[in-house]
Write a structure and sequence with these properties.
This protein is of the alpha+beta class and 182 residues long. The chain has four helices and seven strands, in the order ααββαβββββα. The protein is globular.
Length: 182
């Protein structure tokens, strides 16, 4: 059996998680449904992806996150077979050894708030974890758990404005290279 490096194992695990659990994660935001009378200006696939990938890069660069892996997936806004989708990016990173995890996550929040993010949940958001948002993107930040010991996670969710059919797009997309490219 071939031995994989930690970053490769993390990347493989992350892509699998995004593919299987994009809409089922306990961190997954409960996105509000679009109002039936509201006029939705659709976002094409590329714009929906960049809406969450660019802020994910911002998290990585501003906070100098280490051993980063990332994945992207599509999530139906109202559940299975909905007509609208949003993009979701998940970033996993190594928590520094010997550093208080809660304090470290608070430093991440402070850094993002200093760059225009708002602390706390957006209206209608019932996500778990430490929550931040902009007008377009929501972020849930969590520390390590029993399965991913020593890792932090940022789950970024975009706007519910993609009208393309993504029902068959269950495979996650590895975005690690985009997140770590300077």
């Amino acid at each position: 059996m071939a031995t994989r490096t930690r970053p490769v194992r993390l990347a493989c695990a992350l892509v699998g998680i995004v593919a299987v659990a994009a809409g089922c994660s306990p961190m997954a935001p409960k996105m509000p449904k679009a109002e039936p009378s509201a006029q939705i200006v659709p976002l094409p696939d590329e714009a929906s992806m960049q809406q969450v990938i660019d802020p994910a890069k911002e998290f990585v660069i501003l906070n100098q996150l280490q051993d980063v892996t990332g994945g992207f997936g599509w999530v139906a806004c109202g559940g299975q077979n909905e007509a609208l989708y949003y993009g979701e990016a998940q970033v996993m990173f190594q928590l520094p050894e010997g550093v208080d995890e809660e304090r470290y996550l608070k430093q991440i929040v402070k850094m993002m708030v200093s760059h225009g993010w708002m602390d706390g949940p957006a209206q209608g958001d019932r996500s778990f974890g430490t929550l931040l948002h902009t007008n377009e993107v929501r972020a849930a930040i969590t520390g390590s758990d029993s399965y991913y010991q020593g890792l932090g996670k940022v789950l970024l969710s975009g706007e519910c404005r993609n009208t393309n059919d993504h029902r068959d797009d269950s495979a996650g997309i590895d975005i690690t290279a985009q997140l770590t490219k300077r």
